[in-house]
Each structure stands twice: as C-alpha cells, then as structure tokens.
C-alpha cells in the first residue's frame, strides 16, 4: 500500500511540476494545487498506513492509528484552499488588467 | 507555563478583527491600530524581562505537556526578535499613516498589517515545526494581500511571481516536515533535538536538513533570492520596509533555530553549505547593489547582502559569532526598515527612482540627507552606531573558527555596502538638480521624517548602549550554541 501511495505521490508531483512549467497562468495554478495534494498524500504515507485501528490511545490499545498526520493534513488543506482561491482571484484580476495570462509576456519588471 | 507568551499573537489578532469592522472609518482605524501596536510593544517588553529574569518561558496550549500538543517557547532570541518586530512595525505604521493613502487604508490595509504581525510573532515564538509552517502561511497570505493592495499593473505582475515562488517553497516545507515526521516521529523542536541526538544525524536526516535549508533559504533570500528584487519593488514604501525588515528575517531565524537546535551534528556538511551559500549571496548581492542605478534595486540588493552576512555568522557557529548573529539581526531589521523608509522619502522628494536623474537635494532636504548618511554608516558598521558590535562579533567568530576566506569576503561586503549607498548619497544629495523645470514645490515629509527619526534614534541608542544589549544577545547566543538549555526548559517542567 505504501508503495502504491508513493507512486501516486510521484505521479502527482510530476504532473504538478509539468503544469507549473507551462506558460498559461491557469495551468500553473492547477499545478500548484496538484503539488500541494501530492504533499498531503506524502504526509499521510510517511506516518505509515494502517487499517482497522481507530486514531485513539485507549486504555488497553494494542493498535492505533497515528492521528497527528490527519490533523496536520487538515490544517494544510485549509491553507492550500485559501491560497489557491486567492491565486485564482488574483489571476483573474491580472488577466483583466494586463490583458494576458501568458507568463512569457509577464516577464521583467518594467512598465507601470 | 506562562500565559504571557500568547499576548504577541492575541493582541494583533484581536486588533485586526476590530479593524475589519471599522474599515470605512479611516481615523478610527488609525487609532485602533496604533493602540494595538503600542500594547504589543508592552507585551514584548514584559516577555523580554521575564526571559531575562527567569530563563526560557514556555506555554502549553490546552495544558497538553510537550512533546504532545502545541507548545510556545520564548527564549531570549525569540523574545528579542518579537520586541524588535513590534517596535519597528509601529514605526512603519506611523510612516504608513502619512504615505499609504486613504484608498488603501479603506481597503483593509490596517487589518492585513496586524495579521502580518501575528504571523511574524507566531513564527518566532512557536516551539514546533508544523506551527512554524502555519505561522509562515499566516504571514505570507497577509503579505500577498499587502503586496497587491492598490492593484497597479506592476503590483499584479510581481505578486503573481511572488505567490508562485512562495507556494512552491511552502509545498517543499510540508514535504520536508512529512519526511522528518516519518523519520523521527515527532515535530516538537525540543523533542526532535533529543531524538536526533540519540539516533545520530545519518544520511536521511542530512537530506531532510538540506531540504529545510532550501525552503528557508527561499523565504529568507539566502542565495535563492532571484524573486526578491522584483517583488520587493512593487508595493508602497511602508509595506516594502515591513517586508525587507521582517519577512526575510523570519527565514533567517528559522535557519538559525533549526540548524542550531536540530541539525547541528554534521556542521562540516550542513553548515559549510550555509557558509558557501552566504558567500555567493554576498557576492551576487554586491554585484547587484553596484550594478543598478534604480534606488529600489540598490536597497533590495542591500537586503540580500545583509542576509548573506548574517548567514555567514550562523555558518561559523561559535559562541562569539552566535552572539553577533543575534545582535546583528536586531540591528539589521531596524536599519533595513529605516533604509527603506528613507529611500521612499528620497524617491518622493526627487520625483523619480532613477539615481541618474537626481541631484542637489541637500539644499532642500538637509535632514533627510544626513539621516541617509547615518544609516549608511550604521549598515557599514561604524562604531557609535548599532552595526559595529554585531559585525565585530561575527568577524571575530569567523577568524576564531579559521574560515579566513569567508571572513575576508564578509569584510569586503561591508565595503560594497559603503560604496553602493555612498553612491546614492552623493548622487542624490550633491551636484546640481538635473531638471529644475520638473521640480515641484517641496514635498511635505514632516510626519514621515518623525517615524524615520525614531528608528534612527533607536539605532543610536543600541549603538551607544551596546554593552547592555550585548548582555541580552549573549544570553540568546548561549541557547543557540548549547541546545540542551532549550530542550531542558521545554521538556523538563
């Protein structure tokens, strides 16, 4: 199971990086979104996957799932949603004002 | 346990919430924001005093003792940086009153300002790595908003790049945290320190350490500063000063903390990497500072040089140089904020940011000229001003640890700073005014000058009272060199 997850993380990273390297702003945002999801899966996988045990340290727990990664991922998902939506709004505004979503044309710093 | 530690977060947070409701009334916002800022300074002073008298203070959120739960830790380094943050952000706030413009103030400049302070203070005070990430994000999201506020074309295009760089580096941050959690099974910094000391810093930990270094270097502008000069030229001066003084320094703080507390077992690998990155930062930053004649760019590259110099101190990692790092960090935060504020006034007075079109401002703005002159010498490290002691300690530490080449480059970087800023001083304040026709009536700078003068006075006070400040920074440096003090204070209560 861990192996499958690692491969999935790898593929998501690949796709994310590919999208970030494209010129279209929309694709770049989707790329960052995929990257963060890849990282969340990575966080889940690194704490070792377990089936059939609750995330509770009971009185006589013989097996329990580590609750910390779930808590971390939850926090991180909220942050990534917030940032992604902000990025979308910004990209829309920039498209309206700069009349392009091509990163090649947004290079350099000159001009007001 | 000490509940005092939550105040540097809760005060700006509540102030920001109150400010959201008052967003249409500019004067009310100013009063609320100024009150919050002053209360924040008071809380920071109390924390510094507490740490001075009783050693490292911790706060266990919800009563969960470490290594479980969320812990806040204030050692002397964190406390001093919180104090510096609150003081210089207040100065930037007063500068913003006079320069930011009512339109921006009505569109939530004030709440974002306070949210930024929440993130910065949180990053300094937190005692576990994931909370460091969360506080980084709080700080970064506010900074995205502040950098784009106003929505000019230049701001929009620079913000796009700034956000992209930061999202990617945050992604790597979470990945590094995931790996570290997989290896060590904890994220509490004190606990991590013990675990890694027990298990030894093997190959995997080294890789994770370098991943952390890349993340923090991106945030701090250490070697990976390609995004910095562009992004930091876009926002208005008061925001620029906040960014230049605070955001990069949070990255530096994270490097100093993790590489002195957690990954300190193989300095020949990690610390020499930091050292070489610092050298390249100083050299490339120096080239940038000399190459351009745009005031924004010269100042931004000076920020880069400062980052390189502080990292050089972290890389040598002796007691002397760590004392110097703390001292110089405080000085650099204040002096860089002041440099940005003066640069902003200079551009306002001259009506252009191009050095080649300036000249002769000394006749009309003598005070501004001499303030710029003083901050130049403070940054270079001339004795009565605050840069001297920190620089001396870092250089001494460099010689003592036998890194002669690095120390030489670090010394040479001071000369570059002197050259690049004196070029601005001479170019802008001496000679003839280039275009007498374009000169308007003198710009009103009174309110702005007082904010800058307060920071300059602070630089002078720190410089003259360096003996006293040194005793504080030495206490902070002691913790950085001896991690056992930190781990004992957090874990054995």
From TrEMBL, chain A:
It is found in: Cell membrane. Keywords: Cell membrane, Membrane, Transmembrane, Transmembrane helix. Its main location: membrane. InterPro entries: CPA3_antiporter_subunitC, NUOK/Mnh_C1-like. It comes from the Bacteria. GO terms for cellular component: plasma membrane. The chain crosses the membrane at residues 6-21, 28-49, 69-92. It is a multi-pass membrane protein. It holds the Pfam family Oxidored_q2. Belongs to the CPA3 antiporters (TC 2.A.63) subunit C family. This is Na(+)/H(+) antiporter subunit C. It comes from Paenibacillus woosongensis.
From TrEMBL, chain B:
This is Na+/H+ antiporter subunit D. It comes from the Bacteria. Residues 127-415 form the NADH:quinone oxidoreductase/Mrp antiporter transmembrane domain. It is a multi-pass membrane protein. Keywords: Antiport, Cell membrane, Membrane, Transmembrane, Transmembrane helix, Transport. One of its GO terms (molecular function) is NADH dehydrogenase (ubiquinone) activity. GO terms for cellular component: plasma membrane. The chain crosses the membrane at residues 6-24, 31-48, 68-96, 108-124, 130-150, 162-184, 204-229, 241-264, 270-292, 299-319, 325-347, 367-385, 405-426, 447-465. It is found in: Cell membrane; Membrane.
